[in-house]
Structure formats: structure tokens, C-alpha cells
Amino acid sequence: MIITKKHLSRRTFMRGTLGATVALPFLDAMIPALSAAPTTPFRFGAVYFPCGVWPDTWHPEKEGSDFEFKPVMQPLEQFRNQLVTVSKMKAPWGSSVHLGASSAFLNGLGPANSRSDGKSDAFGKIESKKTIDQYIADQVAGDTPLRSIEVGTEDMGTAVGACDGFACTFFNTLAWRDDSSPLPVGINPRVTFERMFGETDSKERRFARLKEKQSLLDSVTEETAKLKSSLGAPDRAILDEYLGNIRDVEQQLNRMEARLGTITGNPEAPVGLPEAFDDHMTVTYNLMHLAYQGDISRVFTFMTGHEASDRAYPHIGIPEQHHTISHHGNNPEKLAKYAKIATYQISKFADFLDKLKATPDGDGTLLDHAVLYWGSGMSNGNAHDRNNPPAVMVGGGCGRLKGNRHIVAKDTPTSNLLLALAHVGGAEIESLPASTGRVEL
């Protein structure tokens, strides 16, 4: 028998000038003739929101299925059939009122070596526990170019006293590769883009491209044309959409840089941060969409803001700092603003989910083959309350997550949910700090 169907390697890259490389999305041409379709990879993402969410605006009243969405979670109702929310859990207190909230979000611990007086020796010794995103990456990263991606929108700086007396690494980190290897968030979208598609270890090449404003796609035009000539019509459509998304992100970055005038001649700091926070959120989510679509990475963490954030939200009519608003004192006006900030963040998350849902991936969509976890390390920010924090999971998880459910897990530590998420991602770990079992997802 003569088999004529061509087989394109799953790890084919288009290579351009100045170190540019473009990974490809999954194409039909990557399936060998007479072979079974390959298993679609599982993807995981965790999104952290600081300063908590007022429980009355978030948690459903009804347990089980067909519950009514509260106002802050309302933008996610369109994903009901692939959504699970968990209430009545208890997050760990950690080593300080804010530090413990974010630093324990994905491992249930935060800084290790806490003393009996509630302080920590961690300023001199950076140590915590491996986080569930990294356990999942162990299982699913495969031969992806980036094992995981860690992004954010702000950091705490390094000023003395800025981080409650702890190493600022703990405020700027959600993910830990192992107990002594933090993976701090990258807050510059251009640097993340270059990490995904360029040679970030070559300062000269990176700066040359920025200075010339050479498009990534322009640099691989010849290879793109050659590849498309060998593909069928469906694959060409998938490739065109993917390349169009890359172009859109490039244009977003270029517009932001033009506003800031950021070509400074310093290759150590190729661009400044986006001027508008909404732009920063949009382009970061778009980068994570590209990471999934191009199979550049299957795991990411996104810190939308650090704890005790001094960010204001004037673009939605809130000029006050987020942290200040979270200390609402039960004032109705402040409570309304507190809910409005959280609703804005959930709306941005919903936009990201909608892009995943609209992107074909093997026998389904990117959302069908992912689990996205959105949450916070506290509930009522006014009291730094660790009881009843927000937690929602969205996605099909390759058939491993049953949606349309509100789980009431009274007095269950959040570590039990983390343990369950690790298992959904294929990581058969038996326990995490503070875990007493596993939430049944």
C-alpha cells in the first residue's frame, strides 16, 4: 500500500530574521496518514485577583446545578455548562494580612519558616512550596517551547518596608517551580511577546527589531507562503486566524509604545509598560490566548494586581485606590465600587474565555481542553477575611470537569480545591500544605 498523505511535524516552526520563531497551531496536516488523531493536550491557567470579593455579590444561594448568578459573577453565566464555583472554603492566613493571601494561592502555604510570633525568616531565605500549576506543567508541558508563563500587571518594587518586611519576591510570585525556586511575574507585555516569539537572551537582536519596528510576521513571510502552499483549505484558515491574532497583538503593543515614546536606546528595558490599565489587561490575556493557540505553553499564571494594590480604576469611574476601596467599612457607596472593580475584572476574564471558546482545537475548542481557575486569597477585604473566598473554574478540561455546579465545601481548606485541580491536570499528588482531602470536581 502506498500512503501519500503528508505529515507535518507538531513542532514545526517558521523562522525569520532577528531570531524570530513562530510556533504553529494544531493542523490537520500534523496527523499522519492512517493514524489515530493525537490526544489533545490539557491546558491550565490561574488568574489571581487581589483584595477579595464581597461574598454577598459573588456566591450563589442555591447549591448544585441551575443556580442563579450573583452580580459580580454574572459575566460568566454564558459559560455555565463548563463552570464550577466553590463556596464556604477557608483560605490560609499565611504570614501577614496581605502576603498570605496571594503567596499561598496556589500552594496553600506562602513563605516557609514562619516563626511563632507570626513573622517570617524568609527575607533572608526565599522558600515556600511547589505550586499546583508547576505540578500540572510536569504532566502536560511536553515539548512546548515554554514550560509555563507567569505574567502580571504590577510589582511591589524593592523599597524597604514596601513588602511588609518580607522579600518582595513573595508579593510578586504566584508560582514556585520547587520549594526554593520562585517564578516571579513578568509585567511587561512586550518582554513576554519577545520571550514567546524571539530570542530574549540576545539583547542586540531584540533591540534591533524594536528599533526598526520590524513585524514578527513580516520577518517570516517567505516561510509562511511556502507552508501555506502545502496545506489544505481548512488548515490555511486556521493558520490565517492564528497569524492574524499575532498581528493584532503586535499592533496593540506598537500602539501602546507609540503613545509612550518608549524606544529609548536601552536594550535592558526595551519598552515601557502600557499607559492604560485596560490595555495592559487586554494584551496580557491576548498573549495567553496566543500561548495556548500556538501551543507555546500549556500553563500560565496571571496576577492581575498585587495585594494591597494602590491601583485606581478611573476608566470605570473609580479614582480611588483598590486597596482603599476594599476597606469599605460597610459604606454602601464603597461597597458598590468594590463590586464594580471585581465585576470589571470578571468581564475581562470572560472576554478571554470567549476567545478560547471561539478558537478550534482538535476535536473541540481551546476552552473545551482547558481549565481556568479565577480566585482570590480572601473574601471581605475590609477584614482581610480568609473565610469564603471567591473560586471559579471554567472549561471542559478535556472532559474531566463537569460544569453547571455550585459546590458548598463548608470549612474546607482551599488546599483541598488545589489538590483537586492538580488531579484534574493529571498530577497525582497526595497532599498539599493544610489539605485534609480533596474537593470532588
What features would you highlight for this structure?
seven-stranded mixed sheet, alpha/beta, 2 domains, Alkaline Phosphatase, subunit A, two-stranded antiparallel sheet, disordered N terminus
Summary, kept brief:
The chain is α/β, with parallel strands linked by helices and about 450 residues long. It has 11 helices and 15 strands. It is globular, with a radius of gyration of 22 Å.
Written account of the structure:
The N and C termini lie far apart (47 Å). Helix 3 runs parallel beside helix 8 and helix 7 packs antiparallel against helix 8 (277-293). The protein is built from eleven helices and 15 strands. The protein is of the alpha/beta class. The chain has helices at residues 99-103, 132-140, 189-197, 203-212, 216-219, 221-228, 233-260, 277-293, 322-326, 332-357, 414-424, and strands at residues 13-15, 21-23, 43-48, 83-90, 149-152, 175-178, 181-183, 299-303, 312-313, 318-321, 360-361, 364-365, 370-375, 391-394, 405-413. It folds into two domains: 1-38 and 200-272, no CATH class; 45-187 and 277-284 and 303-424, Alkaline Phosphatase, subunit A.
